[in-house]
Design goal:
Elements (H helix, E strand, L loop, with lengths): L2 H13 L2 H8 L3 H15 L4 E2 L5 E2 L1 H27 L5 E7 L3 H16 L3 E7 L2 H9 L5 E6 L6 E16 H8 L3 H10 L10 E5 L4 H12 L5 E6 L2 H9 L4 E5 H5 L14 E5 L6 E9 L6 H15 L14
Parallel strand pairs: 3-4, 3-5, 7-8, 7-9
Antiparallel strand pairs: 1-2, 5-11, 6-9, 6-10, 6-11
Helix pairs in contact: 1-2, 1-3, 1-4, 2-3, 5-12, 7-8
Length: 326
């Protein structure tokens, strides 16, 4: 089967209009019609009814349903053949959540590009549920996220633990503890007493977010109904508001280490302390997953190895507290 004809057929099936499809493909209408006719001749049946407008025949509708699988198998075969040559090149598609990419990709991609200059990177950003669906259907080669993954075909490699911290403006500590402030700051750097902030304003992620669900369970365990000053869908927004002294945010460890995240920015905002939530229930596990039912290109295999090496050995400074990072 001619795969160019098949790809062109799918575009026509999406547009149901030869003119629009030809414009998308940057070829003439006559050339596109010739490709469709050749595919119909090869298959031995008509794929489109052409009057008064285009519509799929039964055979055309079935080809739309199966062509994704045909093209995907072809793509996997080509990847495997390329790997046999020993020359690692092509494209690697990585799925990651919107904000997590800011912390992780600047850490991983420079090192990967240095050793794999002929691999082009495509980044797909979406929520965790959408990313797992992309992995299941071959739209991404790998996804970076948190275990557990729920896709039945996901093969998972854990990379590092990622604790949650309270990001607390020092002004709140001074207001709460007065002369005892420094003592409490040192004490909380080892294990924070969340009940001390029972009546303080919190800036939290919106309900339904993974971190918010973990934090809500943590509050419930300690019999706290937090005073929520405001909610945000973006963890960086929540942290930025905390840095202005408006309340306490919950922030992942990886963001505190990241050189490209807000915690690394210098400025005249509030001095902040970072206290670990001392519970295994507030520690997530960063992991990378691929679809075990699909061929995994060497470019993807070596990205997994690199990510594991970097993230299991990463060092950095949480800006002030806790001292074990300093």
């Amino acid at each position: 089967m001619n795969f160019t004809n098949l790809n062109y057929f799918l575009v026509v099936a999406e547009e149901m209009n030869i003119t629009r499809a030809a414009n998308r493909l940057h070829i003439s209408q006559q050339a596109l019609s010739n490709h469709i006719t050749k595919l119909e001749d090869e298959i031995g049946t008509q794929l489109f009814e052409r009057n008064p407008g285009l519509s799929l025949t039964y055979a055309g509708a079935r080809l739309v349903e199966t062509s994704g699988q045909i093209l995907d198998i072809h793509s996997q075969f080509l990847s495997e053949v390329k790997d046999l040559s020993g020359d690692i090149k092509g494209e690697l598609t990585i799925g990651i959540t919107y904000t997590r990419g800011q912390a992780l990709l600047p850490l991983l991609l420079p090192a990967y590009r240095a050793t794999h200059p002929n691999v082009n990177i495509r980044i797909e950003e979406a929520n965790a549920v959408s990313l797992e669906d992309m992995l299941q259907h071959g739209a991404v080669d790998l996804i970076l996220g948190f275990s557990p993954f729920f896709s039945p075909s996901a093969e998972v490699t854990e990379l590092s633990a990622d604790r949650l911290f309270l990001a607390v403006p020092v002004s709140i500590m001074e207001q709460l503890f007065g002369d005892e402030c420094q003592k409490k700051r040192e004490e909380f750097s080892e294990a924070v007493d969340i009940t001390a902030f029972r009546n303080q304003p919190f800036i939290l992620l919106k309900k339904g977010d993974r971190i918010r669900t973990i934090v809500d369970s943590y509050f419930k365990k300690h019999q706290i109904v937090p005073h929520v000053f405001c909610e945000s869908a973006n963890i960086q927004t929540a942290f930025a508001l905390a840095k202005k002294g408006l309340g306490i945010a919950v922030y992942p460890e990886m963001f505190l280490r990241g050189e490209t995240t807000l915690s690394a920015a210098m400025g005249t905002d509030e001095e902040m302390d970072y206290y670990p939530l001392g519970s295994s229930a507030t520690t997530e596990h960063l992991a990378i997953a691929y679809n075990k039912d699909r061929y995994l290109p060497r470019a993807a295999q070596e990205f997994i190895d690199l990510a594991k090496n970097i993230l299991q050995n990463v060092t950095g400074n949480v800006p002030r507290i806790p001292p074990e990072f300093q």
